[in-house]
Amino acid sequence: MKISVLTLFPEMFAPLESSILGKARQKGLLEICIVNIREFTKNKHKKCDDYPFGGGSGMVMSAQPIYDAVNSVDGERKTHRIYLSPKGKTLSQSKVKELCGLNKDLVLLCGHYEGVDQRVLDICFDEEISIGDYILTGGELPAMVLIDCLSRFVPGVLHSGESVIDESFSENSLEYPQYTRPENFMGYAVPEVLLSGNHANVKKWREEKKISETKKKRPDLLK
Asked: Mind listing the pLDDT tens digit of every residue in the chain (223 residues)?
């Protein structure tokens, strides 16, 4: 999978060089191209924003540099293009699976300031996605969240395919509690069923815990 990210602040994406994502990139399983929008502006001062028509506070990202940046990475419009925006559809596990199922490379636009000129969104982008009902200073963190979610479904990125299947939200429920050594920590013992070696009982316990954890912490998922 190739993901091209359009941003005013490419230096913010340094974390993508680390941990699982960094290893996936080194192995060629995931290609992430960070594109500096400022390189495409025709403004001699490298400005990519201007005052909003109609008045109001703040600045708006200009259409021209974004349009040219998009076309530099996808001139034939073969990708799926996403604007990270608080006005978009809220990101969910099912949405991540949907995007992976497109079998297309992605272009992500990171907004800033008061937003983006609507015309370039109408011309160039397929949808808007939000990572939650709150406002951030820009779209870089949401873009990294989306990339991280997507990477887990790329074959070979995770050591075990079971990790994707058994995790929270995979079946509209939360994951069961996890334990590791030692068996007793400060008087708190690992549930005996997990030490029994009886795989059927372990499976039953985990299914029951998935339901009870969801009822307790996210009952809305059970609807």
From this structure: 999 999 999 999 999 999 999 999 999 999 999 999 999 999 999 999 999 999 999 999 999 999 999 999 999 999 999 999 999 999 999 999 999 999 999 999 999 999 999 999 999 999 999 999 999 999 999 999 999 999 999 999 997 655 565 565 666 889 999 999 999 999 999 999 999 999 999 999 999 999 999 999 999 988 7
Domain boundaries, the chain: 2-151, 166-222
In CATH terms, is domain 2-151 a member of 3.30.1360.120? no
Architecture of domain 166-222: Orthogonal Bundle (1.10)
Three-state secondary structure call for residue 27: coil
DSSP state, 16? G
